[in-house]
Design brief:
The structure is a single chain. The chain contains 18 helices and no strands. It is mostly helical and 410 residues long.
Length: 410
């Protein structure tokens, strides 16, 4: 065997188990496990106790974790939601996000905090689709008007942000015009693959074989999904695009092709088990290990970037929620604004790319990730509270109307 140690991966795997267990013993503490994972990574990393470093095994598993994270985000992306006026409002809202983000980026660039305003605008323009879906589902608000507006806006934001990041800030090199051509060819191959898979899936003989093998040790559907993920990632890399785009589009293709889940209801649960059970936690913990908090903590001026970036995130993704002001109530618009401004995985990814390209310093990257952590902690809870208050107000109004009705004897 090669001379490779697994001590660092062992510590990270232990953190991945401990974080959700701690939350399980404290159910009232509404903190996503990803927050604890990143914070624990900071504690055991060079900025803290110095117990863990990013070696080859951790790098490989973390890279697979990032790919699976984007794959599962693509799996949440449902093109059928992108219909009607809500989609156009979501597109308008994202255009506003980029405009506000560029203005914010220019301001922070003048302060010397970022070297590329567009990178900051793109980094702040996404929404954690998977997290928002989970929050709305747990709160029972997924099918409401505010929930559907949020999901549509988050879907548009995630997709466009990933495409923009791949085109404008690819670590693979090449010109933007060259990457646009590569994206067109790559997109054509993705569509062709989806069409072929959809056509092939109609084969009864193939369907019978898949059904026979899907719950055996072959786990044929899971293997096929992983094959598609790796193929799209490798293909994106060959075309000079960011691998995250390939991972995301692989999830989208599976989401489109896998519409009828009656014959394989556990397929997506198994995919989530592979991702969230091992690979994705390693990515988040290692992201915390990579964070350079020494410069952030050393100077109060640098630490002040965190709340300012949090405000910037709320402006860039919160202000566009005003496009729904004619279709939603005020409390719902405020809730959509907070949910849209909930972002962490994409910020982690974008900042890592920014540091590699020299477009931002490690201190700025750490401040952005800390702002993302705060957004995950504060914004969803506040949004659910607003939506719940709205229902309470409606109930109280109904009770008052019933109380004010004249009785038969009056």
């Amino acid at each position: 065997m090669p001379d490779v140690e697994f001590v660092n991966l062992l510590i990270i795997a232990a953190i991945a188990v401990t974080a959700p267990l701690l939350l399980g013993f404290a159910p009232r503490l509404r903190v996503p496990a990803v927050v604890l994972e990143i914070v624990a990574g900071i504690v055991v990393g060079p900025s803290g106790l110095g117990w863990v470093e990013i070696d080859l095994p951790v790098q490989i598993v973390a890279l697979l974790g990032l790919a699976f994270l984007l794959f599962l985000a693509g799996l949440e992306f449902d093109p059928r939601r992108l219909r009607g006026p809500t989609t156009w409002l979501a597109l308008l809202g994202y255009a506003i996000s980029i405009a506000v983000g560029l203005a914010v980026g220019v301001g922070f660039g003048a302060a010397g905090w970022v070297r590329d305003p567009l990178l900051l605008a793109v980094a702040l323009s996404a929404t954690s689709l998977g997290l928002v879906v989970a929050v709305l589902k747990d709160a029972g608000r997924l099918d409401g008007a505010a929930g559907q507006a949020t999901i549509t806006a988050a879907s548009v934001a995630d997709f466009v942000a990933i495409v923009l990041l791949s085109l404008a800030f690819s670590t693979m090199g090449g010109t933007v015009s060259g990457r646009v051509g590569s994206l067109a060819v790559f997109g054509g191959l993705v569509v062709l693959t989806g069409v072929v898979l959809a056509f092939t899936g109609r084969s009864r003989r193939l369907g019978t074989v898949l059904s026979r093998l899907q719950d055996t040790t072959a786990e044929i559907r899971v293997r096929a999904a992983v094959l598609l993920l790796v193929a799209f990632v490798a293909l994106a890399e060959k075309f000079g695009l960011e691998t995250i785009l390939g991972a995301f589009l692989a999830g989208v293709v599976v989401s489109v092709v896998d519409r009828d889940t009656t014959s394989h209801p556990r397929f997506r649960i198994k995919l989530e088990a592979v991702g969230y059970g091992f690979l994705i936690p390693v990515f988040f913990v290692s992201s915390g290990v990579r964070l350079d908090l020494s410069g952030l903590v050393a100077e109060p001026a640098a630490l002040a970037r965190v709340p300012l970036f949090l405000v910037a995130l709320l402006l860039v993704r919160g202000v566009p929620a005003l496009v729904f002001v004619r279709t939603l109530r005020r409390r719902e618009v405020a809730a959509v604004a907070l949910l849209q401004a909930t972002s962490l995985p994409f910020i982690v990814t974008a900042t890592q790319i920014g540091v590699v390209l020299g477009a931002m310093s490690s201190v700025t990257a750490a401040a952005l990730v800390c702002a993302g952590l705060l957004s995950v902690l504060v914004f969803p809870v506040s949004a659910v509270s607003l939506l719940s208050s709205r229902n309470t107000d409606q109930t109280n109004d109904g009770a008052r109307r019933v109380a004010d009705r004249p009785t038969v004897g009056d």
